[in-house]
Amino acid sequence: MPFRYFLQSWLEGAVQQKVRDTLLDAARQQLQGAATQGPDAGCAERPEICHAGVIFALGIEAAGLEDLLQGTVTTKGHGFVVRQGGLAGRHVGVVLCGAGRENAAKATEALIAGHQPLWVISAGFAGGLDPKLRRSDILMVDHVVDTQGNQLTLDVKVDPAALAESPGVHVGRLLTADRVVRLPDEKQALGRQYHARAVDMETFAVAEVCHRRQVRFLAVRVINDAAGDELPRDVEQLLAQKTGAARLGAAIGAIWRRPGSVKDLLKLKENALVASDRLAKFLAAMIETLFPRAA
């Protein structure tokens, strides 16, 4: 897998020490919990550690990773869906929060409160702002900024040689906007204004909650539409729908109003499936590298 070298190089830096600290902290917390519960506490079933909680806006973004999970258990409530399963001995929770910052923030709070993941990862699709990023390229986020100029820095340090050996993998700044950015001219203007390589609608909110709650955080995005691609006009309306049935209704309405949208929507879905599969492989490699042995 071409990005294994990239991930290994990244882990050899500061993040590797954070992984060791994370596992030690988890072990200490379990021992303290057992001590405070008394001698009979060992008879109770100990909850499984959640190694990574991965937050996606939409099911199609998460589909590739969900296909890799084993023994998946699904729970629904409070407007989002959580799927928990095993990934090569690591316990992973996948959260579908819906599009937008408010949904992402609420889901992150619930994930941390309910599952206490050792790492939280914001993942999903992004629109390219930098012409150098092509469709299905991966962006490891080292800074995330919003349209108000707020910024958070992520601990991502990569050897340039490792990056050069990983075609299609990039490191850079991600912009979180409050709406879909459809047009090429606007994408490139935003890229210049915020010095960002891609844009999404959720990551800053997830990062902000993790920063406040002192939970270790990473962000990975796959480019679904490049800087020169124009998204169909119907995308914003589809993303605004909160259920599959509502999205289907919006799609039927779009086709009714503009029959030519069928071709656009099918192409968009085809690109999304390819992007989801590539993102899933990268996330799986990342999680396995973060946790060389299951805690």
Outline the structure in words.
The chain is an alpha/beta fold and 295 residues long. It has one domain: Rossmann fold. The chain is 46% helix and 24% strand. The chain has a 5-stranded mixed β-barrel, surrounded by 4 helices. The longest helix is centred in the first third of the chain and has 34 residues, at 4-37.
Strand order of the largest sheet: 5-9-8-6-10
Q: Return the structural class.
A: alpha/beta
CATH topology: Rossmann fold
How would you characterize the largest beta sheet?
5 strands, mixed, barrel
Run of helices and strands = HEHEEEHEEEHEHEHEHHH
Helix fraction, binned, reads: 40-55%
**Quaternary structure state of the chains depicted:** single chain
Low-pLDDT segments: 30-46, 245-260
Which CATH architecture is right? 3-Layer(aba) Sandwich
Query: What's the overall average pLDDT, rounded?
Result: 80
In short:
With 295 residues, this protein is an alpha/beta fold. The protein is 46% helix and 24% strand.
Keywords:
globular, 10 strands, alpha/beta, Rossmann fold
Which helices and strands, and how do they pair?
Layout lengths: L3 H34 L14 E5 L2 H10 L1 E8 L2 E8 L2 E7 L4 H15 L3 E10 L9 E9 L4 E3 L6 H5 L4 E8 L7 H11 L3 E3 L2 H11 L2 E10 L9 H6 L3 H14 L3 H30 L5
Helix pairs in contact: 1-9, 2-9, 3-6
